[in-house]
């Protein structure tokens, strides 16, 4: 098991990656006042185990899925926290994927102006990305993650044992964020390309999860709250990905990030931000998980969602993070009309 420290100004975090991380969490939470937030999927698969391992804990089960990452679910959690008479030394334990982690973390940040928080991510996406770094949020008014807080967990416990029960689509979702990290960090990208036959191998996944966590920890330490702009690099593929996710739904977040990286690699190449060779490498990595980019009807209207993205610094302009060379990236702005022209490429049929 690897232990990765995240040294942020607000609160340090310790991330346990590997087999035995869940047992480490069980031992840490034993004899502590614990409030577990999980969802219906996790409850169905692991509910009996959670009741056995945390017999004294209050367990709040919310509906699964991004569509339920809203104010109603947030206040459902807060109502149950209040009913349980939690105090600032109580521990909120988020056990689930990124949606559970986002909402439980936000609830912990606002309850009594902050109570203790640990993350026990059960999906590949949450283990490699969303559980680390302290971003918490809900969707509101048709905008993703527009209400939230930066709130660091004390501990994150990433155990690959949970990946054994993930459906293939959830694994693909997680690979979206792994590939994103591989584009941002050339060594991780090379490691992925050198191990193409091991994408479902738990031993390899255990190592690549730790690599991704270590990369993100380094970014978060330098720019915890996105003030310097350095942390924005983690939004690679997310401008287009979020816009499509808000318009169409259905697919997972990671799938939309993959589609976003594909289109934004084309933008980078045609806007002379990236060389053709680098853009092809990005698309090669994307193709490991998303072999055929789908087509979308009426896709140009998704520009309205891109214009609501948090990265934008002025009206009428769409800001995105583009890969410009191996392990190098930059923020790039397009007018809404120009961006819409690129979005239209997603309406075209591809072989």
Structure, explained:
With 351 residues, the chain is of the alpha/beta class. The protein has two domains: 2-165, Rossmann fold (3-Layer(aba) Sandwich); 168-347, Dehydroquinate synthase-like, alpha domain, CATH 1.20.1090.10. The chain contains 13 helices and eleven strands. A seven-stranded mixed sheet has the order 1-2-9-6-5-3-4, sandwiched between helices. It has a two-stranded antiparallel ribbon with strand order 7-8. The radius of gyration is 20 Å and the shape is globular.
Produce a short descriptive summary:
By secondary structure, the protein is an alpha/beta fold.
Topology:
Layout: E1 2-6, E2 13-17, H1 21-29, E3 34-39, H2 40-53, E4 58-62, H3 71-83, E5 91-96, H4 98-110, E6 116-121, H5 124-130, E7 135-140, E8 143-150, E9 155-158, H6 168-184, H7 186-194, H8 202-222, H9 238-248, H10 253-270, H11 276-287, H12 303-306, E10 317-325, E11 328-335, H13 336-343
Parallel strand pairs: 2-9, 3-4, 3-5, 5-6, 6-9
Antiparallel strand pairs: 1-2, 7-8, 10-11
Helix pairs in contact: 3-4, 5-6, 5-8, 6-7, 6-10, 6-11, 9-10, 10-11
Keywords for this structure?
Dehydroquinate synthase-like, alpha domain; two-stranded antiparallel sheet; single chain; 2 domains; alpha/beta; globular; 351 residues; Rossmann fold; 13 helices
Distance between the termini: 43 Å
- Name of the level-1 CATH class of the largest domain: Mainly Alpha
Rg result: 20 Å
Give the % helix.
40-55%
Strand ordering within the main sheet: 1-2-9-6-5-3-4
Query: Main sheet, how many strands, which sense, barrel?
Result: 7 strands, mixed
Order of helices and strands: EEHEHEHEHEHEEEHHHHHHHEEH
Structural class: alpha/beta
Q: Could you tell me the mean pLDDT?
A: 95
Low-confidence stretches: none
The figure for the number of domains is 2
CATH architecture term of the largest domain: Up-down Bundle
Kindly report the name of the CATH homologous superfamily of the largest domain.
Answer: Dehydroquinate synthase-like - alpha domain
Spatial shape: globular
Strand content: 15-25%
- Give me the CATH fold name of the largest domain: Dehydroquinate synthase-like, alpha domain
């Amino acid at each position: 098991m690897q232990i990765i420290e995240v040294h942020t100004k607000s609160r340090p975090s310790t991330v346990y990656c590997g087999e035995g991380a869940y047992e480490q969490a069980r031992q840490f939470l034993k004899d502590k006042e614990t409030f577990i937030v999980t969802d219906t999927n996790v409850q169905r698969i692991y509910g009996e185990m959670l009741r056995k391992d945390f017999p004294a804990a209050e367990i709040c089960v919310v509906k699964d899925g991004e569509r339920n990452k809203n104010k109603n679910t947030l206040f459902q959690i807060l109502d149950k926290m209040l009913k349980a008479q939690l105090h600032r030394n109580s521990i909120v334990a988020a056990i689930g994927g990124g949606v559970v982690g986002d909402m439980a973390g936000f609830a912990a940040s606002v309850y009594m102006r902050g109570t203790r928080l640990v993350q026990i991510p059960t999906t590949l996406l949450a283990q490699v990305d969303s559980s680390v770094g302290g971003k918490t949020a809900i969707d509101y008014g048709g905008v993703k993650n527009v209400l939230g807080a930066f709130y660091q967990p004390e501990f994150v416990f990433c155990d690959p044992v949970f990946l054994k029960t993930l459906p293939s689509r959830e694994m693909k979702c997680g690979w979206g964020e792994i590939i994103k990290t591989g584009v941002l960090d050339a060594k991780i990208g090379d490691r992925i390309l050198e191990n193409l036959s091991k994408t479902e191998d738990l031993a390899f996944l255990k190592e690549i999860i730790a690599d991704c966590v270590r990369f993100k920890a380094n970014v978060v330490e330098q720019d915890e709250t996105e003030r310097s702009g350095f942390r924005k690099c983690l939004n690679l593929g997310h401008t287009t990905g979020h816009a499509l996710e808000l318009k169409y739904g259905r697919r997972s977040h990671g799938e939309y990030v993959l589609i976003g990286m594909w289109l934004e690699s084309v933008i980078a190449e045609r806007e002379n931000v990236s060389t053709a060779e680098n853009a092809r490498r990005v698309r090669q990595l994307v193709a490991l998980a998303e072999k055929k980019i789908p087509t979308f009807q009426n896709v140009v209207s998704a520009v309205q969602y891109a214009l609501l993205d948090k990265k934008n610094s002025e009206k009428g302009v769409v800001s995105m993070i583009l890969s410009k060379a191996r392990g190098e990236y930059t923020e790039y702005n397009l007018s809404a009309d120009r961006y819409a022209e690129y979005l239209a490429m997603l309406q075209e049929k591809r072989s």
